[in-house]
Amino acid sequence: MPDILIAEDEDVLRRNLTFIMNSSGYAAVSARTSTDAIELLKKKHFDVVITDLVMPVMGGGELIKYVFENCPEVAVIIITAYPSTDSAINAVKNGVFDYFTKPFKTEEILDAVRRALEQKKEVPFTWEKLKRFKITKREKSLLRLFVEEGMSENKEIAERLGIKVTTVKHHLENLYNKFNAKNRTSLISAIIKALRQ
After folding, report:
1. pLDDT digits (tens, 9 = 90+) for 36-76
2. Fold classification of 3-119 (topology level)
3. What CATH architecture is 127-196?
4. What is the DSSP string of 92-140?
């Protein structure tokens, strides 16, 4: 039975997620802080860690760093009420398996856990997987700067690609449509899902 660790300071959500995971055939335990979660990781092996980013004492970023440095085989799924382009980009660069913005659907989290257990972080990003979205070469170049190098400023991207800022905005709008995204954060989240499938 796969072991799931849930790090979430919101009591109701933490209890609900733990109950849902246990009811779905997983062995789930939870922690209210990153510090508590790290202590649990020191004592026991987990297959998946689901963590909030903003928590008291020490943020989820520290927990994620601990997992990557000490438990590289563990898949990490982020849930956050405070999404940002930077946090999403950092998540991708650091190898986070999936990224959800609150509120999210239970089925989505369960699906992410199932996929994480199947793939266990051994599947690298394969840009070929984006073919079905019919992205252009220029859009792919923009996404690479966005995802792999963490560039988020339109001006910086425009200079690097040798195009106008308005052209960058146009490409981004096209990408939002292709990935059914509303903003950069949801675009990154959609790209993570597409690249990990």
Report:
1. 999 999 998 899 999 988 777 777 788 888 888 888 778 99
2. Rossmann fold (3.40.50)
3. Orthogonal Bundle (1.10)
4. HHTT-SEEEESS--HHHHHHHHHHHHHHTT-S---GGGGGGGT--HHHH
